[in-house]
Amino acid sequence: MVDVRRVKLPGVGVLHTFVTADGGKAGVISHRSGHSDLIAFSDAEDGAEAKKVSLRLSEDEAHTLAELLGGTRITEGLDKLDRIPGLSIDWFTVDYDDHIAGQQLGNLASHGVVGLTVVAVVRGDSANPAPADDFKVFPGDTLVVAGSPEKVAKAFTFYRTGELAPKLTADLQG
């Protein structure tokens, strides 16, 4: 039987991790917003430089992968226990090709994204809580945001592309 470690990530969701028979480490972060991150990683205790591989999955993709692997939907049930209606706290890891990479964080409200807050920017092992609009974001940074699940998802699209469709702008303001 595999020993699965469950860690609640306040405001984010739940992290489930386990060590494979060959010493690999794998896990799933089940976000409150419905998507999941499939991760494989090493850490400092492995005697090597820390490494992480992450794959973001939609809710449907996560269910499909679980079914392909013969899993169940236990995580979905546990995740519902941690929900606060209307609030999602989630993170966005900035890649080199994301619109926000190399840019100042800016004021989301000036782009029509109201009702969403950047709680912190995590860089390496340090957090920059409540960053100012002129805070410069770099690839590898993680933006921690809070808002409704829909607005969080739409803001992540903005961070990736820099664009808000007219309907998207109306939705974010409402």
Write the layout of secondary structure elements.
Layout: E1 5-9, E2 13-19, E3 25-31, E4 36-42, E5 51-57, H1 59-68, H2 74-81, E6 88-93, E7 116-123, E8 126-129, E9 142-147, H3 149-161, H4 166-173
Antiparallel strand pairs: 1-2, 2-3, 3-4, 4-5, 6-9, 7-8, 7-9
Structure overview:
The structure is a single chain. The protein is an alpha+beta fold and 174 residues long. The chain folds into 2 domains: 5-81, no CATH class; 88-173, Regulator of K+ conductance, C-terminal domain (Alpha-Beta Plaits), CATH 3.30.70.1450. It has helices spanning 59-68, 74-81, 149-161, 166-173; strands spanning 5-9, 13-19, 25-31, 36-42, 51-57, 88-93, 116-123, 126-129, 142-147. The protein is globular. Residues 71-79 have low confidence and may be disordered.
Strand order, sheet with most strands: 1-2-3-4-5
**What is the terminal separation in angstroms?**
49 Å
Q: Tally the structural domains.
A: 2
- Total number of beta strands: 9
The CATH architecture of the largest domain comes to 2-Layer Sandwich
- Biggest sheet descriptor: 5 strands, antiparallel
The radius of gyration computed from the alpha-carbon positions, rounded to a whole number of angstroms, is 17 Å
Q: Which oligomeric form is depicted?
A: single chain
Helix content: 10-25%
> How confident overall, as mean pLDDT?
75
Query: Secondary-structure element sequence?
Result: EEEEEHHEEEEHH
Strand portion: 25-35%
